[in-house]
């Protein structure tokens, strides 16, 4: 049962091949057995999951037929789940029982999903390896001595190991797409504003976007259909009608114009990853697409711009963690300043403290223009690059990451080294365009993903392309050995 | 050395919206602690702000009323600092692009002259919560009910040159925001708060001196006293060879002094940047015009109209237009009675006394404008004298009905029949023959007082109902012999 | 050219785990011009000893390059930590100063980009703020919200006494 995709589960539940409760129990047992090797869950909500499953079965018995009714998923531990610990992978929120549901959580609950628990992540979504979590690192099911990517590392590992068929994630600089690529999954970051950020604990407000990781595009479409939509509680939510993502999966790709940015393929990119990327291009050409070289000239400046904007916004967003109204409070604070300084120093890990410092500095008097404003100007250049490119092509394709999964501990204490791994994904967050990563092969047994980027609100197109590609290839069907039973 | 005082004021007006500026919590004053603090107000993880349209409307009303440039594309920015009554660790305010730009307000000084005070800008921001320092065994208690209430921060140019001018300006702002219906101006409850920036410079010097900021002065009286104290302090400091430090001070009304705020550190770096959870607020021309249409006649216009159409003095016109309620009351009295001057006198005189004594606002006046107007009509048509009117007024205040009803019931109609008065006077003189002789024997100077005696007797005899004017005339004639 | 040699060296050091295979052995040299500035910093990051860094920089003719690093002093770091209310101890400050300088060096590369006449982009989609009607929609949830508070009394959140 655990090998079924979300879509297969949906059809099986519909055909009453098994109940949501049965499925849930099977998965809960698997999680208990398998997850100690991966550490992908922070909180398993066993009792609630069974309640939810029973309720879904009940709804189905009464005639309801939604595609996600009774479907098991898990949430990245960054989405507020009422009555359940929501930790953001941090000691600061280890004792935080969310008093409300995030819109994403509520929408999926209304659709009848069963949430099995909360997934591990880099602390406050800051990281690309899921090594910074207070709850310990997550391991990649493809090689447990390696990282699964981050910050949605728990989501990736859990889905890749077939502990859940799909999971929610968030993506600020690549945190859905990169772990998807490193664990052979399909991951989607929609257009900025497509999915509500209410209850999605903020890291960098103008870059954060919710999304999902699953085993294929169809599963992603199922979830996106329920998650997307305007939310009046989120000022940055866009009031744009939600497409029928499932219907558009089947559109043929004839006439699709793909752009390959020359900057992506500098002579030195690991040739094997480059090869797989170009192979994927060939497959798409067979399906009717044409390819041309394009240019994203300001791409290289994306990393410094991101590492100003994201920490700057984060430094402000994380000021509310002060030990006063919720969260971690240090023991016996001597005075107010001590309360703040020790609660925050003890509650936050190294990477979070680092980024808060960088962000504070970038916004401080005398540096605002040279850092923050400068970065925002570069941001516009990057957006302009995309707008220009999308005049010539329909989608942009490239590798998702410059490398395969690296070993645990390898890039510790080398934040800059880790930052560089975001080189392909980061531009999409700065410009707000939707991006998807899909499996495209293996290098030395480790998964490699290719990334597709599209103009605003064309996540439907991305899912369509990935779905057609996945009908013609089978990379996405491979599962890590050792996690098949 | 001649010194000149330079003052700039920052006034925070709490806007009287029903809900908070970024959340749907109630803004009612006086609720139990933290019962009006939603997830957003508490700065919980994952929450997001959404802007209250009425707050924007009220700010635009203010901007139009001070003839200011309206920031049709204005941006909310975060002001970052740590304090327990600031749950997010930042206040959402406006920095580079405020909703209201440069404007002005004309104020009337004590001597009647009008001075134009420039207003640099006004912007929207959220209020912080409250800290309670009473004993919680060495701890401070934080109440976040107030956190998120919309504020309009109004910044004046440093055009004010004395404490009295400062008070006149604050009073004018107070009146204006109440006129516009955007703030109740209740300084006791903190609806209107004033920070005073005070500096001195030698007369004739172009540069400003270093200024000190006196925070949160909450009554007109204290504003005047605080500024006066601070000016004196600065002058003495400089004359003693010292330098004024740019700092924040508090006014202590008990000691009538300002003192430095110990806990405030050197210039806080607020790291302002546009709030990424909010988008730029765009005010379309249609919204602007719609709002303009919602503006009431403003205090200045009303004052001018009262002077022009009713012939009132500037002083009277100013007093009567000080608040919308007062102006409306007066106009109603004038309308019913047809006599602006009498209406003005009665409203500013007897009515104001009554209200003060009973500690009532004009909206709660026990004497309605209709009744007062009706009474004045009876004075004008000689049904009652001014003196009797006072009795009628008191009776109306006691709820005994309209002027006509009271006059009827108590038989207060004035006696105007010449014959009746003559005969009454005849009796009075007859009863006081000795005094009459004395009167006729005295010279002009002494006669004045004696005349009053006869008037008094006449009034007594007629139980006050004889028309005073006629009494005067006829009595004179009779006494002349 | 000296930088090619440096890049090969850096590429080797920076080689991620392609099963122990370093980039140098591949058919292509890691010479992507777009990655150069970042890779150079990897050099500084990976080699903790400033002296060695300076030596190799000299050797490779990169002396002035490293001198241009945005240098934060210890006192700067203390100020920033205070602004952010992060209590750093001695060891933290040491470590953080070095790492922050590395990150700032990365960021400094922005200065090379010409952004004259380019407007800052605060929000990717450049939409405008929606205004909500002035209605009270929240009810009193104090009890529910205060169950997770560290210190509460009589409905108030407690903090160490604040002196005004």
UniProtKB/TrEMBL annotation, chain A:
> What HAMAP family does its record include?
GatA
Q: Does this entry carry the keyword Ligase?
A: yes
Q: InterPro entries, per this entry?
A: Amidase, Amidase_CS, Amidase_dom, AS_sf, GatA
- Is the keyword Ribonucleoprotein assigned to this protein? no
Explain the purpose of this protein: Allows the formation of correctly charged Gln-tRNA(Gln) through the transamidation of misacylated Glu-tRNA(Gln) in organisms which lack glutaminyl-tRNA synthetase. The reaction takes place in the presence of glutamine and ATP through an activated gamma-phospho-Glu-tRNA(Gln).
**Record-level GO cellular component terms:** glutamyl-tRNA(Gln) amidotransferase complex
What is the organism field in this record? Pseudomonas duriflava
What protein does this entry describe? Answer: Glutamyl-tRNA(Gln) amidotransferase subunit A
Q: Give the UniProt record's GO annotations in the biological process aspect.
A: translation
Q: Which family does it belong to?
A: Belongs to the amidase family. GatA subfamily.
- GO MF, one example: ATP binding
Q: Which NCBIfam families match?
A: gatA (TIGR00132)
Keywords of the record, alphabetical order, are:
ATP-binding, Ligase, Nucleotide-binding, Protein biosynthesis, Transferase
Outline the extent of the Amidase domain.
Answer: 22-463
Which positions are catalytic residues? 76 (charge relay system), 151 (charge relay system), 175 (acyl-ester intermediate)
PANTHER family, alphabetized: GLUTAMYL-TRNA(GLN) AMIDOTRANSFERASE SUBUNIT A (PTHR11895:SF151), TRANSAMIDASE (PTHR11895)
E.C. numbers: 6.3.5.7
Automatic annotation (TrEMBL), chain B:
Please provide the Gene Ontology terms (biological process) for this protein.
glutaminyl-tRNAGln biosynthesis via transamidation; translation
Name the top EC class: ligase
> Would the keyword Transmembrane helix be found if you checked this record's keyword annotation?
no
Domain called Asn/Gln amidotransferase: residue spans:
328-479
UniProt KW Transport keyword? no
What's its EC? 6.3.5.-
**Which Gene3D superfamilies did the record assign?**
1.10.10.410, GatB domain, N-terminal subdomain (1.10.150.380)
InterPro entries in the cross-refs: Asn/Gln-tRNA_amidoTrfase_suB/E (IPR017959), Asn/Gln-tRNA_Trfase_suB/E_cat (IPR006075), Asn/Gln_amidotransferase (IPR018027), Asn/Gln_tRNA_amidoTrase-B-like (IPR003789), GatB (IPR004413), GatB_C_1 (IPR042114), GatB_Yqey_C_2 (IPR023168), Gln-tRNA_amidoTrfase_suB_CS (IPR017958)
At the top level, the lineage of the source is Bacteria
Q: Which reaction does it catalyse?
A: L-glutamyl-tRNA(Gln) + L-glutamine + ATP + H2O = L-glutaminyl-tRNA(Gln) + L-glutamate + ADP + phosphate + H(+); L-aspartyl-tRNA(Asn) + L-glutamine + ATP + H2O = L-asparaginyl-tRNA(Asn) + L-glutamate + ADP + phosphate + 2 H(+)
Which terms does the record give in the GO molecular function aspect? Answer: asparaginyl-tRNA synthase (glutamine-hydrolyzing) activity; ATP binding; glutaminyl-tRNA synthase (glutamine-hydrolyzing) activity; transferase activity
User: SMART domains per the record?
Assistant: GatB_Yqey
Q: Which UniProt keywords apply?
A: ATP-binding, Ligase, Nucleotide-binding, Protein biosynthesis, Transferase
Please describe the quaternary structure of this protein: Heterotrimer of A, B and C subunits.
What role is this protein assigned? Allows the formation of correctly charged Asn-tRNA(Asn) or Gln-tRNA(Gln) through the transamidation of misacylated Asp-tRNA(Asn) or Glu-tRNA(Gln) in organisms which lack either or both of asparaginyl-tRNA or glutaminyl-tRNA synthetases. The reaction takes place in the presence of glutamine and ATP through an activated phospho-Asp-tRNA(Asn) or phospho-Glu-tRNA(Gln).
Q: Which family does it belong to?
A: Belongs to the GatB/GatE family. GatB subfamily.
Q: What is this protein called?
A: Aspartyl/glutamyl-tRNA(Asn/Gln) amidotransferase subunit B
**From what organism does this protein derive?**
Pseudomonas duriflava
Q: What is the lineage of its organism?
A: Bacteria, Pseudomonadati, Pseudomonadota, Gammaproteobacteria, Pseudomonadales
Per the record, the gene is: gatB
TrEMBL record, chain C:
Entry superkingdom: Bacteria
Q: Report the record's Gene Ontology biological process terms.
A: glutaminyl-tRNAGln biosynthesis via transamidation; regulation of translational fidelity; translation
Q: What is its EC number?
A: 6.3.5.-
Q: Does the keyword Protein biosynthesis apply?
A: yes
UniProt keyword list: ATP-binding, Ligase, Nucleotide-binding, Protein biosynthesis, Transferase
Translocase is among the record's keywords:
no
Give the coiled coil ranges: none
Q: Which reaction does this enzyme catalyse, per its entry?
A: L-glutamyl-tRNA(Gln) + L-glutamine + ATP + H2O = L-glutaminyl-tRNA(Gln) + L-glutamate + ADP + phosphate + H(+); L-aspartyl-tRNA(Asn) + L-glutamine + ATP + H2O = L-asparaginyl-tRNA(Asn) + L-glutamate + ADP + phosphate + 2 H(+)
Gene3D superfamilies per the UniProt record, alphabetical = Glu-tRNAGln amidotransferase C subunit, N-terminal domain
List the Gene Ontology MF annotations in alphabetical order.
asparaginyl-tRNA synthase (glutamine-hydrolyzing) activity; ATP binding; glutaminyl-tRNA synthase (glutamine-hydrolyzing) activity; transferase activity
Signal peptide: which range, if any? none
* A Pfam family hit: GatC
Q: Which family does the record assign?
A: Belongs to the GatC family.
Explain the purpose of this protein: Allows the formation of correctly charged Asn-tRNA(Asn) or Gln-tRNA(Gln) through the transamidation of misacylated Asp-tRNA(Asn) or Glu-tRNA(Gln) in organisms which lack either or both of asparaginyl-tRNA or glutaminyl-tRNA synthetases. The reaction takes place in the presence of glutamine and ATP through an activated phospho-Asp-tRNA(Asn) or phospho-Glu-tRNA(Gln).
Q: How does it assemble?
A: Heterotrimer of A, B and C subunits.
> What is the name of this protein?
Aspartyl/glutamyl-tRNA(Asn/Gln) amidotransferase subunit C
């Amino acid at each position: 049962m655990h090998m079924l995709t979300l879509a297969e589960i949906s059809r099986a539940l519909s055909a009453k091949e098994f109940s949501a409760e049965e499925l849930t129990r099977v998965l809960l047992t698997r999680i208990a057995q398998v997850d100690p090797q991966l550490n992908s869950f922070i909180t398993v909500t066993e009792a609630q999951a069974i309640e939810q499953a029973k309720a879904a079965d009940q709804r189905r018995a009464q005639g309801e037929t939604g595609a996600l009714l009774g479907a098991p998923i898990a949430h990245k531990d960054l989405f507020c789940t009422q009555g359940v610990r929501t930790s953001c992978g941090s000691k600061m929120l280890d004792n935080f029982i969310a008093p409300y549901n995030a819109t994403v959580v509520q929408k999926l609950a209304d659709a009848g999903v069963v949430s099995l628990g909360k997934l591990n992540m880099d602390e406050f979504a800051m990281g690309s390896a899921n090594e910074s979590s207070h709850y310990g690192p997550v391991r990649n099911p493809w090689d447990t001595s390696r990282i699964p990517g981050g910050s949605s590392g728990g989501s990736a590992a859990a889905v890749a190991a077939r502990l859940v068929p799909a999971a929610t994630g968030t993506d600020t600089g690549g945190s859905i797409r990169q772990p998807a690529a490193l664990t052979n999954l399909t991951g989607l970051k929609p257009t900025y504003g497509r999915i509500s950020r209410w209850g999605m604990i903020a890291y960098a407000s103008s870059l954060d976007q919710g999304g999902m990781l699953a085993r294929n595009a169809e599963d992603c479409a199922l979830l996106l259909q329920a998650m997307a939509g305007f939310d009046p509680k989120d000022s940055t939510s866009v009031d744009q009608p939600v497409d029928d993502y499932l219907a558009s999966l089947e559109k043929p790709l004839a006439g699709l114009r793909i752009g390959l940015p020359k900057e992506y393929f500098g002579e030195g990119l690991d040739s094997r990853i480059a090869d797989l990327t170009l192979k994927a291009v060939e497959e798409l050409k067979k399906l009717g697409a044409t390819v041309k070289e394009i240019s994203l000239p300001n791409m290289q400046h994306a990393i410094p711009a991101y590492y100003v904007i994201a920490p700057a916004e984060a430094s402000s967003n994380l000021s509310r963690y002060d030990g006063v109204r919720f969260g971690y409070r240090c023991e016996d604070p001597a005075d107010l300043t001590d309360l703040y300084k020790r609660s925050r120093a003890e509650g936050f890990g190294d990477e979070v403290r680092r980024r808060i410092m960088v962000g504070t500095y970038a916004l401080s008097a005398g540096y605002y223009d040279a850092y923050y404003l400068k970065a925002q100007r570069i941001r516009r250049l990057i957006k302009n690059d995309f707008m220009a490119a999308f005049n010539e092509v329909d989608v942009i394709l490239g590798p998702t990451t410059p490398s395969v999964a690296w070993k645990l501990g390898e890039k510790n204490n080398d934040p800059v080294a880790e930052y560089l791994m975001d080189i392909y994904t980061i531009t999409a967050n700065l410009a707000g365009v939707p991006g998807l990563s899909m499996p495209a092969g293996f290098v030395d047994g480790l998964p490699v993903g290719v990334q597709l980027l599209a103009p605003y609100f064309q996540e439907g197109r991305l899912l369509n392309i990935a779905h057609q590609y996945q009908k013609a290839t089978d990379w996405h069907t491979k599962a890590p050995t050792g996690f098949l039973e | 050395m001649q010194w000149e005082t330079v003052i700039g004021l920052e006034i925070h007006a709490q806007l009287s919206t029903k809900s908070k500026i970024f959340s749907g919590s109630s803004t009612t004053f006086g609720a139990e602690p933290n019962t009006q603090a939603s997830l957003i107000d508490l700065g919980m993880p994952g929450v997001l702000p959404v802007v209250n349209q009425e707050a924007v409307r009220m700010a635009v009303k203010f901007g139009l009323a001070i003839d200011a440039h309206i920031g049709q594309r204005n941006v909310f920015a975060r002001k970052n600092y740590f304090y327990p009554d600031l749950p997010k660790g930042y206040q959402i305010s406006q920095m580079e692009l405020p909703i209201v730009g440069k404007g002005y307000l004309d104020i009337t000084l004590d001597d009647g002259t009008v001075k134009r005070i420039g207003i640099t800008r006004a912007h929207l921001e959220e209020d912080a919560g409250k800290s309670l320092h009473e004993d919680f065994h060495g701890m401070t208690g934080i109440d976040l009910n107030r956190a998120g209430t919309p504020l309009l921060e109004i910044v004046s140019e440093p055009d004010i040159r004395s404490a009295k001018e400062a008070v006149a300006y604050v009073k004018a702002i107070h009146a204006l925001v109440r006129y516009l219906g955007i703030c109740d101006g209740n300084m006791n409850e903190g609806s209107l708060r004033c920070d005073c920036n005070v500096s001195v410079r030698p007369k004739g010097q172009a540069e400003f001196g270093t200024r000190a900021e006196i925070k949160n002065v909450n009554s007109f009286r204290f504003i005047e006293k605080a500024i006066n104290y601070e000016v004196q302090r600065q002058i003495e400091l400089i004359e003693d060879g010292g330098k004024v430090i740019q700092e924040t001070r508090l006014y202590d009304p008990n000691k009538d002094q300002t003192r430095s705020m110990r806990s405030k550190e050197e210039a806080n770096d607020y790291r302002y940047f546009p709030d990424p959870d909010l988008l730029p607020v765009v005010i379309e021309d249609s919204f602007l015009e719609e709002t303009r249409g919602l503006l009431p006649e403003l205090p200045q216009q009303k004052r001018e109209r009262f002077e022009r159409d009713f012939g009132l003095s500037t002083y009277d016109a100013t007093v009567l237009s000080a608040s919308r309620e007062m102006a409306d009351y007066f106009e109603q009295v004038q309308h019913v009675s047809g006599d602006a001057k009498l209406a003005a006198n009665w409203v500013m005189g007897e009515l104001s006394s009554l209200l003060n004594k009973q500690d009532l606002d004009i909206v709660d006046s026990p004497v309605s404008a209709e009744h007062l107007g009706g009474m004045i009509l009876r004075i004008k048509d000689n049904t009652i004298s001014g003196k009797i009117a006072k009795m009628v007024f008191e009776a109306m205040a006691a709820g005994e009905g309209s002027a006509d009803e009271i006059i009827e019931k108590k038989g207060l109609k004035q006696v105007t029949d010449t014959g009746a008065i003559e005969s009454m006077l005849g009796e009075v003189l007859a009863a006081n023959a000795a005094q009459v002789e004395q009167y006729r024997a005295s010279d002009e100077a002494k006669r004045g007082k004696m005349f009053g005696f006869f008037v008094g007797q006449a009034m007594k005899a007629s139980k006050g109902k004889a028309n005073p004017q006629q009494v005067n005339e006829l009595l004179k004639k009779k006494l002349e012999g | 050219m000296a930088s090619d040699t440096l890049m090969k060296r850096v590429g080797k050091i920076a080689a991620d785990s392609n099963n122990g295979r370093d980039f140098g052995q591949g058919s292509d040299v890691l010479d992507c011009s777009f990655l150069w500035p970042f890779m150079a910093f990897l050099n500084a990051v990976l080699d903790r000893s400033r002296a060695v860094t300076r030596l190799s920089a000299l050797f490779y003719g990169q002396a002035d390059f490293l001198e241009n690093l945005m240098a934060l002093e210890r006192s700067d770091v203390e100020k920033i930590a205070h602004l952010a209310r992060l209590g750093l101890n001695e060891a933290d400050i040491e470590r953080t100063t070095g790492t922050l300088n590395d990150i700032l060096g990365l960021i400094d590369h922005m200065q090379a980009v010409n952004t004259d006449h380019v407007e800052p982009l605060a929000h990717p989609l450049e939409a405008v703020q929606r205004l909500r009607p002035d209605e009270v929609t929240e009810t009193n949830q104090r009890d529910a919200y205060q169950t997770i508070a560290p210190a509460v009394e009589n409905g108030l959140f407690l903090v160490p006494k604040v002196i005004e």
